[in-house]
Design brief:
By secondary structure, the protein is mostly helical. The protein has five helices and no strands.
């Protein structure tokens, strides 16, 4: 009787821990969903930049400026395309990875992979954003005369500084110095499926495995 009560307690604790990990899973899915949406928007803007006519007749051609512009616009499109691909694939495969396992192991591995991918995704997002701003600035100098270009350049740099300042303030306000995970350390039942009797299909999920109960 005592062993059965202990088994019920451990199983209930494992299920509650899985509920907490599900909150983490939902959080990361929301993060990658937002990143994918932003990447598709910025990628569209970057592709529009690449369609700008750079061969106006009578305009003195600066080949270095043109090359820099093409590289910046192409980098913006490439970074955002990579980010969009990562976000899409995470949204497709991560939930299946977490749900097809029998217990904590598959859920924890899926969350760990998403945490690792987030750092790289954040790099691609910032790199794509800066590349887009750089391509816009270079396009201004290519399309306008010096006076008009410097006026627009000052405005774009001002917006970039304001955006950077807000980014730092939001980061300091919401991002903790260290993250805490919902995983249960020392969990005696890391795989909840192993606690059930696998011999008789009629009892699976209803009767505890004797070896598990005896180990408690």
């Amino acid at each position: 009787m005592i062993q059965a009560n202990k088994a019920n307690l451990v199983t209930d604790l494992s299920l509650r821990t899985l509920d907490i990990r599900q909150y983490e899973m939902d959080y990361w899915m929301g993060v990658f969903n937002k990143l994918g949406t932003i990447a598709s928007t910025l990628g569209g803007f970057a592709s529009t930049n690449m369609l700008i006519d750079t061969g106006f007749e009578g305009k003195r051609r600066n080949q270095l400026l043109l090359l820099s512009y093409i590289l910046a616009a192409g980098s913006a499109l490439g970074f955002n395309l990579v980010l969009f691909t990562i976000s899409t694939l995470v949204g497709i495969w991560a939930p299946g990875k977490a749900l097809r396992g029998e217990g904590h192991e598959s859920m924890e591995e899926a969350i760990r992979i998403m945490e690792d991918l987030f750092d790289r995704s954040l790099f691609f997002f910032l790199a794509g954003l800066l590349s887009y701003f750089l391509s816009s600035i270079l396009a201004v100098f290519w399309l306008f005369d010096s006076a008009g270009a410097f006026i627009i350049f000052a405005g774009l740099v001002g917006f970039l500084l304001v955006m950077g300042r807000q980014l730092v303030k939001i980061y300091q306000a919401f991002v903790p110095s260290s993250f805490r995970h919902g995983g249960l350390k020392g969990n005696p039942a890391p795989n909840i499926g192993q606690t059930m009797n696998p011999q008789d299909p009629r009892l699976r999920g209803q009767q505890f495995q004797a070896s598990f109960v005896e180990a408690l």
